[in-house]
What does this fold into?
Amino acid sequence: MMRKNLGSMLVGLMLLGCTLQHAAVANKAQKDMVGMIRGQLFQCAGVPHRTAKEGDLEHLVYSAEQTIAYRRGSFSENCDATFILRQNVVVKVMYRGDTGGSHPILKTKGRACYPIIEHCLK
It folds into this structure.
């Protein structure tokens, strides 16, 4: 019984590590992707789900949703990542939605946005 609990704890810690890493990468991407050109964004994130123009700005919106199941149930997270471009260059990246936990110690906010940007950062 103790071995089973230890195994479950280890799996939980490994998943937590991935979760924290995905959140950190997604949040870092909000700064690191500024300056990326439109073609590069399309190559790594694909075609956006929605687009809009506002003056000289173009808004490209990508969406992701994931359901996370655990022993006692499940919960969903979603992200709308908006890339604002001026003259085909990313000038700002914003995330909206239920993008992850807001626990004060476990900084997981933004983890739902990771699938959108995961191929854009090296």
